[in-house]
Design a protein that fits this description.
The protein is of the alpha+beta class. The chain contains 6 helices and 8 strands, in the order E-H-H-H-E-E-E-E-E-E-H-H-E-H. The protein has helices at residues 10-24, 26-36, 39-60, 119-122, 124-135, 158-179, and strands spanning 4-6, 63-66, 70-74, 79-83, 87-93, 97-102, 107-108, 150-152. Strands 1-2-3-4-8 form a 5-stranded antiparallel sheet, with no helix packed on it. A 3-stranded antiparallel sheet has the order 5-6-7, with helices on one face. Helix 2 (26-36) runs antiparallel to helix 3. The longest helix has 22 residues, at 39-60. The N and C termini lie far apart (62 Å).
């Protein structure tokens, strides 16, 4: 089976709109701060804009990746991988989103399929659950034989990490300039 990515189309679109709106008002913020001669606040605001952009980028890149033998849940901060034969139950609903339980009683809740008003109409959580169930064996492995969920505490997201690094540098410069007053 080929690798397949499951996500709601609205997540990357929402993240893109939020980032565009954020940076769309940035020139007015710069103009206002430069007019007042407050360079420290301008650096602090840049830090805030960069950190917020990093948040929306990480949110927009959330996905559930279906591989040949396992699935990977990529959330904003970390990721989790579990084999299909270790999944005991997959539950989906418009209000609750998508949730999975493993043979070792570990829980997985993909952020990308969190509860949504649009899910009442489009049933994306249910279709994702059906796709996962099709790849699961009829009977999961017993808990003693099932592999545990593999976790990655912090997942790489270069664009978001670049924004976050810029936010840290901008925040430090803003504080140094603020102390120099």
């Amino acid at each position: 089976m080929e690798e397949r990515a499951l996500r709601r189309r609205s997540w990357p679109v929402f993240a893109g709109i939020a980032i565009a709106a954020l940076w769309g008002v940035y020139p007015w913020t710069v103009d206002m701060n430069l007019g007042q001669g407050d360079y420290a606040d301008l650096w602090r605001i840049t830090a805030l804009w960069c950190a917020t952009s990093a948040f929306f980028l990480r949110l927009g890149t959330c996905v559930v990746v279906l591989r040949a033998e396992s699935l990977v849940v990529i959330n904003p901060i970390g990721s989790k991988e579990v084999r299909y034969d270790a999944i005991r139950k997959v539950v989906a609903g418009p209000a609750s989103g998508l949730k999975m339980a493993t043979a070792r009683d570990e829980r997985l809740a993909p952020v990308v399929f969190g509860g949504s008003l649009l899910d009442y109409r489009f049933a994306t959580s249910e279709s994702a659950a059906d796709e996962i169930r099709r790849r699961m064996p009829r009977k999961p492995r017993p808990a003693a034989q099932a592999e545990p969920v593999r976790r990655q505490l912090v997942r790489p997201c270069r664009s978001a990490d670049l924004f976050l690094a810029t936010a840290v540098v901008s925040g430090i410069v803003g504080e140094v300039l603020g102390l120099a007053k």
